[in-house]
Amino acid sequence: MTPEDPQENDESQPGKAFSAPHGPLNVIISEGEFVKPLGDSAVPFFALLSVALADRRNFNNQFYFNLLNEAEKLEVFLDDHGAKENITWYYFREIIASIRNCAIAAFQLSHILNRYGDYHPAEPAQYSAEFLSQGADAMAHLNNFVAVLGNEAVAELKKLGCEVCMTTPGIPDYKDIGSVAKLPRNLQMENFKTSERMIMHIAESYRRIAVKVNREHFGKKTPPAEFANMIPTRINETKIKILESSLHNIQSEYDTHIRMTGNATNDADLLGLRAFISAPMHLLEMARWLIHFYERHESESYSGVGRGNVAHLVDKNLVLGLVSGFALFFAHRFMMMGKRQAEQIMSRMVRMTRITVPVPKPAGFHARPAYYVTIVVEEHGTDAFLIVDGRKFDARSVLDILEAGGIAADKELETVEFEGDERTLTDLKILSDSNFCENEQIPKELNYIRIARNIMV
What we know:
By secondary structure, the chain is mostly helical. The chain folds into 3 domains: 26-169; 191-349; 350-456, Histidine-containing Protein, Chain: A. It contains 15 helices and 6 strands. The protein has helices spanning 35-41, 43-54, 61-80, 90-119, 125-159, 196-215, 224-228, 237-257, 262-265, 268-298, 316-349, 367-380, 398-410, 422-433, 447-456; strands at residues 17-19, 25-27, 353-358, 385-388, 391-394, 415-420. It has a 4-stranded antiparallel sheet with strand order 3-6-4-5, covered by helices on one side. Strands 1-2 form a two-stranded antiparallel ribbon. Helix 8 (237-257) packs antiparallel against helix 10 (268-298). The N and C termini lie far apart (75 Å). 37% of the residues are buried. Residues 1-13 and 15-20 have low confidence and may be disordered.
């Protein structure tokens, strides 16, 4: 055969080798010949999957960890053999990828539920009961997703001529969530301390992320139809990944510098902050993988590709409900409680000083200057007070500032005092020098006031 013969590199001939330009040598295998190696490679995955198909318990995180790993191995095997670019095997590969996505989401949730008692989050009892109840419901939905997709994977393989072994020899007995025995907690490390600077850094970093989460309005349970319109422009897996990674970095710093030290042992707020780092981190990862599943396998842009459509198997409204109504909602709740603890830690550690500033002209502390003061205080997160005629008023509260402003007007005071940490007072001085932005531009150093004001509008 001459080099010019077109059959030399014909990729359609089974068993024939071809070489892409500057690429490795490849061997083409027919769809039928692929059945045997696939069947051999899929045995561990389907043996584990059979447990989920036969028993609908909410398993612990060990089960989902093994399932997602076996799904990933099978998905890699399929990708290595070009299944996602093959019309016959594309759909089966899509099902396996979908099972992996759901297994990762289930692993993250089961991890939280399994360790919830260890976290000891400082939250009202009704909040804990609500989370655990809705968490069990969410796990039931994820289990059902895996079961429906698993049955479809078995059926699709049979259509393609591959018989699957669904026996479970050697598969361990996976326990229910919450039934893991624990060793005694008796390690003491009170002699080890960390610096106040590191504690302040971790608390400030956490608070900044909590502010971002709050600005995204994750605490609103958006109806599925409305939430779908927010993907991917307002909500997408990249945005969730950034928040999740930021929390992961904070958790790593906390575990390195604070956990098991005397600082955490003797400070309930600092000890409790760990729960408000970890729980929302896992919930954000759960949300990220479900958003990925929705965008990749439920979106209309992928419909009609291959032989089937995963969107017909799993109700996308249930998926979106788990993201908005559960994962993001509770991530927001945990982070708002954590934000308050971080602020308490920060307020105890700062050095309080005072400054004297003139009363805004001509109308004093009415709604606009009062609101701008609260934005400055909220930006830095530590306690600050407006002091009028010897009385302290909470500078986080517009109502408190309005009351203080009324007293200042009644007594015809021309100056008042602010008490707080240096950074807060520096910005309040800039605000005061601009007459609290009464008929003046907001200084560039206080651009966050403009951002917060626009968000409110």
